């Protein structure tokens, strides 16, 4: 059997029949939209936000702003962080009308907004147990911020920033 363009979740087979469950591609959002606040972050600008070009920086904790909101979810069983905001053509043509997730770009050693449907990136997750933002399948973690409030990444995973989260009502992007 060949399944083109579809994700095969499972096959239950008996001697005469088989049942195939098909899952559509793309991110499935979880029930809670969150705002991430860095413990020890930039005073009065501790919360993560996504700029027009998709980079992550620290900004004021405006809980009702879509650019501060992220929803944990899954793509075919992999944990992801779905970004609530939308992106404009003048800044990120590749994200216009797309669902954006936080991803780790290994060539640039950055976490930033990327199309959730891309297959060539490592997506990022939030580890609730230890309050860290980590790349799936890699040691990289969000490690804090620099002197101009841009987030920094530790590719070794030794110096990870800690975050608290606040559940919020999602703001329309």
Walk me through what this model shows.
The strands form 4 sheets. Strands 3, 4, 5, 6, 7, 8 and 15 form a 7-stranded antiparallel β-sheet that branches. The N terminus is likely disordered. The chain starts with 6 loop residues before the first strand and ends in a 5-residue tail after the last strand. It has a single domain, classed as Trefoil (Acidic Fibroblast Growth Factor, subunit A), CATH 2.80.10. With 173 residues, it is mostly beta strands. It is built from no helices and 15 strands. A hairpin with a 4-residue loop joins strand 11 and strand 12.
Give a quick precis of the structure.
The chain is mainly beta and 173 residues long.
């Amino acid at each position: 059997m060949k399944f083109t363009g579809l994700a095969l979740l499972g096959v239950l087979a008996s001697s005469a029949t088989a049942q195939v469950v098909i899952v559509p591609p793309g991110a499935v959002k979880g029930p809670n939209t969150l705002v991430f606040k860095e413990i020890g972050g930039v005073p009065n600008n501790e919360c993560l936000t996504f700029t027009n070009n998709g980079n992550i920086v620290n900004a004021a904790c405006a809980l009702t702003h879509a650019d501060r909101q992220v929803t944990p979810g899954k793509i075919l069983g992999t944990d992801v962080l779905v970004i609530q905001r939308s992106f404009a053509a003048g800044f990120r043509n590749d994200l216009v009308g797309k669902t954006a997730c936080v991803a780790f770009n290994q060539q640039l050693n950055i976490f930033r907004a990327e199309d959730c449907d891309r297959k060539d990136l490592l997506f990022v997750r939030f580890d609730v147990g230890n309050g860290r933002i980590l790349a799936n399948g890699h040691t990289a973690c969000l490690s804090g911020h620099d002197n101009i409030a841009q987030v920094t990444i530790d590719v070794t995973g030794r110096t990870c920033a800690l975050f608290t989260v606040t559940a919020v009502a999602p703001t329309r992007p």
